[in-house]
Amino acid sequence: MGLRDEHQFDSALQAELGRVLVAVDHAGDFLADGATDVAAWLVAQTGTVRRHARETVRVARALESLPALRAAFASGAVSYDQVRPVTRFATPETDEDLARQLPGWSAAQVERLARRLTPKPDDEASTARVRRALFWRPDHKAGGFRYRGFLPSDQAAAVNAALTARAEKAGPDASTGRWDPFASRCADALHDLAIGDRDPGQSSLVVMHVDAATAAQAAHEAGGADDAPASADPADTAGPAGPVEPAGSADPAGSADPADPADTTGLASPASPASSASPAWTLPDAATGPRKSSPVAADPVPPNGLLGPMAVGRETAGRVWGTGGGAARGDGAPPRDAG
After folding, report:
1. Distance between CA atoms of 306 and 215, rounded to whole angstroms?
2. Of 77, 238, 280, 337, which shows the fewest CB atoms inside 10 Å?
3. Cα(128)–Cα(196) distance, integer angstroms
4. Residue 242's closest CA among 330, 338, 339, 313?
5. Model pTM?
6. For residue range 230-272, what is the model confidence (pLDDT) as tens digits?
7. Do residues 276 and 307 lie in contact, with contact meaning Cβ atoms separated by under 8 Å?
8. How distant, in Å, are the alpha carbons of 6, 168, 169, 180, 247 from that of 196?
9. pLDDT for 269-307, tens place per residue?
């Protein structure tokens, strides 16, 4: 008996085993031996592993409704390795056609075909979503980490496309002039995607652009519920940075009280009563360095002028004098320089 004859004989024995298993299953004979199902009975009778026993029973049950494939298997025309994957997608309508073509296919070809044609359950998408996971563990012997996991098809497609694109753009190794294996380039691509264009360990930089109205609202909320609402008029945004003096307190020339000699900018002192209610920026001072919490308008903006005009100063007799925002001095003179 040649090798081919022995192979056909083995296939015929496998087909007969399947027929016996189906008969035992239908009759319930496995219960007499104390087995819970026919797969457990097969494990007890032959000593095979349970995973293999369950698959053998599945194939035997599937072949009941596929007479043409069952006959080809029993005759030895196809092997168990060929018929096992085809039972995942074969139907009574395709039974004869598959039985005719199957002898010309290898087991690996049938496996690939089965992965593509096996019907998917209706809840596959939600099940795949639940199963998503990524694990890694150190491999001290190899000097690195090993990764394994699962992604749903839509997420996996995006990851695969990104890795493939980067791997294909990678050039040859600078030291050897040769191309690294594709798997190695994909590993490099995964690392590049993780760090982006940054150096390892460098923090990410996020730039936010905020309009003046949004900044004013945020400053108002941060200052407390008692703060006055922000005004849309740049000149009005200065607001009283210090206590407002009565209208009659101005001198005959109409000029406001002079500023504190130590305060060359004309800004109210941080200790003024309004400083506790008005939000503040830290403004630079050419002579003394950064000032501490100088009170500004209820609608503050950064002093770089990128977001719009800013008015700071003191209101006296209902008029603003100081700097910024087109505010006029109390004596009618142009706004003085805050420098």
Report:
1. 12
2. 337
3. 28
4. 313
5. 0.41
6. 444 444 444 444 444 444 444 444 444 444 444 444 444 444 4
7. no
8. 59, 17, 15, 21, 62
9. 444 444 444 444 444 444 444 444 444 444 444 444 444
Classify residue 203 as exposed, middle or buried by CB count within 10 Å of its CB (0-12, 13-18, 19+): exposed
Write down the H helix ranges in 47-123.
50-63, 67-74, 80-86, 95-101, 107-117
Residue pLDDT, tens place only, 171-201:
888 888 889 899 999 999 999 989 885 555 5
Which amino acid, one-letter code, is at 339? Answer: G
Sign of the alpha-carbon torsion through 257, 263, 268, 271: negative
280-281 and 294-295: which strand pairing? Answer: antiparallel
SS3 content of the chain, % helix, strand, coil (to 5): 45, 10, 45
User: 288 to each of 251, 275, 280, 284, 339, how far by Cα in Å?
Assistant: 31, 20, 18, 8, 11
Could you please report the per-residue DSSP string of 114-153? HHHHSPPPTTHHHHHHHH-EEEEEEETTTTEEEEEEE--H
